[in-house]
Amino acid sequence: MRSLITRASLACLLVASLSLLLPAAGKIPDPKTSVDFETQIAPLIVEHCIRCHKPGNEKGELSLDSLQSLKENGFLTPGKPAESYLLEVIHVDPETGKAEMPKGAKPLSTDEVALFTRWIKQGANWPAKLKLQEKSKADLTWWSLQPLAQNNPPATPDVPEAWQKHPIDRFIAAKLKEKNLQPSPRASKRTLIRRATYNLTGLPPTPAEVAAFENDASPDAYEKLIDRLLASPRYGEQWGRHWLDVVRFGESNGFERNVIIDNAWPFRDYVIKSFNDDKPFDRMVIEHLAGDVVGKGDPNVEVGTTFLVCGPYDNVGNQDPVQKAQIRANTIDDMVRTTGEAFLGLTVGCSRCHNHKFDPVMQQDYYSLYATFSGVFHGSRVIASKEAQAKRNAQLKPLNARKTELAKEKSKIEGAIQARAEKKAADYEKPWVREPVKRTGVEDTFEPVNAKFVRMTSQGLDTSPWAKTGYRVDEFEVWTTGESPRNVALAANGGTAKGANSRTAGDFAGAYDVSLTIDGKIGACWIAGSPELTIEFAQPETINKIVFSSDRSGAAMSNYKATFLSEYKLEVSTDGKVWHQVASSQDRKPVNSRHRRKRFFILEATPDENKRLSQINADIAKTDRELAAIPPLPSWWVGNHKQVNGPFHIFVGGNPQRKGDTVVPASMSTLSNVTKGYELKPDAPQGERRLALARWLVAKENPLTPRVLANRLWHYHFGTGIVSTPSDFGYMGTRPTHPELLDWLAVQIQENGWRLKDIQKQIMLSETYQQASTFRKEAARIDSDSRYLWRFPPRRLTGEEIRDTLLSVSGKLDLKMGGPGFRLYEYLQDNVATYVPRETFGPDTYRRAVYHQNARAARIDLLTDFDCPDNAFAASKRNATTTPLQALTLMNHQFTLDLSRFLAERLQQEAGTDNVDQQIDRAFHLLYARPPVAQEQQASRALIAANGLPAFCRAMINSNELIYLD
């Protein structure tokens, strides 16, 4: 029986909203009039009840999206008010003036109860197909969901003449006037070139570039500067980095394993090239979502789909069906969220479990996108043109044919040998009297022998009889004779072990050290990288027994393959040079059928057969080398695409185990009032689904994509967007400061064919962008953050810009573009990954930071300290914190110490070794794009005299003027 508290809780929510259904001015409706559910009851439930009583959030196990749950839980009996518990809990006690529900709120009036009573008495009519859904805070009238407005720049007669020419300035000036603010004068040329160069390239201008610009008196000098910077290959590196932030590009998979992804870098290069080529952004959207469809066979296009799979994903491989389904749902959720936020500026992911509480995004919209991406799977795929594939196939074909013929001949000879051996099996097997080798332990006893060394040699593994390396040893024991035998191999007794380690540099080699074989503990194993394990005793001993094992406890046996010996020999030595065999596996039975066949082969094969097989093996090896010499086709982290047909369902509460209504791949209803939508069949080709979504995103009628893009451009030019939440244009985001300007920019993007460089040039040629950043107290009282742009907002350089600047001014920056990234960490991997920051840095790390192999959860000293985001999530904007670690890193880190020394060397080369004043002047021009003033010159001389030129360079690197832009 359901508790009264549960029923009362429901009643509380219902009663609290009944007042909305009452007629105006206290008029009591005619009791005979039918209560209309849709206009009277439904709004009540939606407004006050459905939030806590809906699929996925069923408080009291009760959902109010339909009548069925009310009836099943005994709250309501249609036609019988007296049997409807709901009315009981909302009834007001005449003596106390209170009702059981709602708690802590004003009780319902008699008229309000009567209205609900009449509805029940009249049969509690509830249209069968009507399912109630929670209303969002915003609806389809929300500002960002409206069509783009064709705004004309306002007239601004009361502002300086220079501000009346450019459309952007007129929009800004009008808002400044409205806020009673005045713009700032134009910045100096030195400030402008530094600002523009960092803004477009992320690097400082050279002294020569500054001098040329300052000396250029032509009226279009600044425009020529912008054109030069937009044409620089450095432009794509800077603006590509911005976009990589937005799409959460990372080169490890995150989660607990977080293993590196070595072939995701082509997407980074693709993004950089796309910006440098001024590729239309609508084309980039299509390539990001469906590059494999529109550019099949073209690596330069197909690589765009890395966008879908460059986020974190869980690759642990959980085989539990429930957890596996949940992991898959989480994986697709990452694609849905990123797509919604990057292109539409909508937090679509909030609709995974329920209708969006704030924006008009239905759960059905979310799962329509889920169906769209259902065929996308993380992983690598060969990406090559048809011509490249045909050329390689032509090279492989004859070699593979030769290898096939050799393999056939080899199989025929080995088959004949095996057939003969089977006829002699009884004779061959007679010597095999001992039990087979066991992973849990092998014991060999022999006549007592004096030895100081014992050597075990692998002659075959249990699951790969011809292989000799890769076996495991968890403990190796050598026992003395006598009444009190001792394990003289034990490290505690002075034993030492030698053996090559199979782990490569960068792995957790220490965890597989050969000393684990004699530590006296069972568990951790040595994985052999050579056929031999050698034990040396503290002194010569008389021994007669050896015991060794791979998995003595038996706990790991089912998890490992090809990890123990099937054939071995044991030898002893007194000097480590001359060896004598004391035991072997030759008299043991084989561990499996493959091992048995190997022994038969060795016993039966004739010299001629062995000779021919050796020749065949040599020919196969030669063919393999020739095959290996043919470069493989590139395999890139672009995802794999499989056809996954419906039916697709809403997951109730986001739980894949609770399937709700069916959905199909379709456009979002959020923009149904302004865009022409699409709807595909559940079995539509998976590529067609993604292409339809991409085309809908960049359709001319869709106002969100160009609005969001325009705002991102503004954000990266001014530090804050017109909407300060670049990936959230919904209710929880901020309102635009200049909505008319935002729409004007969005329309310009569309009319300019979605090419960005021209729009950026327009922004940078505006007086708004060219303003000085001088602080004015009276203006700051009105607009402290300069959101209305009464001055240019100063900013600190990003972590990448700071690092690149230090390399640039010291003369060490390597401008090589593209290819695999460098690492500022040591990568340690054994099932899970660890990233240890490097302590020393060489020329291989002196490239631009955008080419760093950007692993998730990898702390990279200077970059991390200066707020480079962890790309486990999309970063629509960067933080700019001030922390002690930043000062400590710039002052004491080995990287900055090295660059201080390199800068000093550069100053001596370019200004002379003895001319301190010229060295100081050159340093100021390199770092600050200006000469020093007299006071600075004097202080610099004193510092150099007292502490040397590198100390002066170190002080310059640590200055605010270097890392802040005005």
Account of the 3D structure:
- With 966 residues, this protein is an alpha+beta fold.
- Among the domains are: 4-121; 280-383 and 640-702, no CATH class; 401-432 and 597-630; 434-589, no CATH class; 894-965, serine acetyltransferase, domain 1 (Orthogonal Bundle).
- Helices cover 41% and strands 11% of the residues.
- The protein is built from 34 helices and 20 strands.
- Strands 5, 7, 8, 10, 11 and 12 form a six-stranded antiparallel β-sheet that branches. The chain has a two-stranded antiparallel sheet with strand order 1-2. Strands 3-14 form a two-stranded antiparallel ribbon.
- A hairpin with a 1-residue loop joins strand 18 and strand 19 (832-837).
- The protein is globular, with a radius of gyration of 38 Å.
- The relative contact order is 0.11.
Notable traits:
globular; six-stranded antiparallel beta sheet; 966 residues; two-stranded antiparallel ribbon; single chain; alpha+beta; disordered N terminus
